[in-house]
Amino acid sequence: MSLFYLLIMRLKVSLFLAAFGFSASAFSYVEMTRVDAKVFIADPETDFSKIQVKNEALKAKMVEFLFNNDMLDHIGTKAYDPSALFVNYYKQFASLYQLIDLNNDQIPELIFNGYGSEEREKEQLLIFTTVKGEVIPVYNEMGYLMAYKIHPNTKEVLLYHHQYPCCENASHNLNRLRMVKNKITMIKRYFLGRDTNMKGKFFPEKSTFSGKFRKTTEKTTLRWSPDEINQAAWPRRSEKNIIANYPDSTVYSVLAEKGKWRFVIVHGAPVEEENRVINPVNFSNTWIYGWIKD
After folding, report:
1. Which residues have C-beta within 8 Å of that of residue 16, sequence separation ≥ 6?
2. Phi/psi-derived region of residue 43, left when phi > 0, alpha when psi is between -120 and 50, beta in every other case
3. CB count, 10 Å around CB of 259?
C-alpha cells in the first residue's frame, strides 16, 4: 500500500468527519502525558543517557535489520511505502532509538520511544532483544519511559513505562519492566487523572517511601483526590470521585498526608462490586494509587 494511497484515505476520513461536525482530534487526544516520577517511584532515575550503550554502528545495524524485514510500522517505513529507503527513515528517527543493556548480559537491547506518525498523538515504546544473532520484538505499547532503576544485586535495568490515557479515559498504567530470559516481565501499577473534565487534585507535591505497610481495619474507600466529591466528579462517568472499595485487612503503604487524608498505594484486591470507574475483577494483581481518609 503506497504512502499516497494512505494520505488520500486519511483525507477522505477527515472530510467525512468534518461533514458531520467532528474532527479527528475529537476521537484520539491524550491527557496528562507527564507526571512527576518521584510521586510514584522511590528514588527514580530519569537521565537515560547514563545507561545508554554508545555504539552508533550497532544501533544503525539493528534498526536497519528491522526496517529491511518490515518489522516497523512508523511513517517512512515499508509498512507505509514499499519503496521507502532506510537512509531517509533513519535520518528522521535515529534520535528516538537507544541501546540499553537491560539484563546485564553484555548484549544491549534496542529501544524506540517517541512519536511514530505525523499526528504525534501517542508515543510508542518498542523494545527489541537479540536471540541467536537475530533482532526480535519483546514489547510494543503506547506511552513513554518515565524512569529507571538499577537492581542493587544483579545490576539489571528496571524500566518504568507510563501509559497515559486517551480520549474520554482517565486511566494511567505505570508498568515496571524487567527482561528475563529474553522476555519482558511486568509489575502493574495504576492511577487516575485528567487535565480536563475531572474534578480533584490528584497527587501530592511529593511522596515519602518508608517501606512500611499497614492494613485497613474496615471496608475502606479509595478516591482519586483528597476530598469527598458527590456530584459531577467525572461527567458522563461517575458522580463521585471513588475509585474502588477495599475489604478489611487490605495491605497498603502511605506515601503522603494532607490533613485527614492519606495518599497511598494499595496492594490488595478491591471489592468486586458494581463500579463505573474500574472493573475490580481486572485489578486483583494491580497496585492502585489514591487517597483514603482516616
Report:
1. none
2. left
3. 9
Beta-ladder partners of 256: 263
* Whole-number Å distance between alpha carbons of 217 and 117: 50
Same domain, 169 and 108: yes
Residue with cell 526496517: 67
Q: Are residues 98 and 163 in the same domain?
A: yes
- Residues 42 and 184 occupy one common structural domain: yes
Residues 125 and 222 in one domain: no
pTM, two decimal places: 0.88
Do 282 and 167 lie in one domain? The reply is no
**Model confidence over 268-294: pLDDT tens digits?**
999 999 999 999 999 999 999 999 998
d(CA 139, CA 163): 13
Beta bridge partners of 142: 124
Asked, for residue 242, whether it belongs to a domain, the answer is yes
Q: Are residues 257 and 117 in the same domain?
A: no
> What confidence category does residue 14 fall into, taking pLDDT thresholds of 50, 70 and 90?
very low
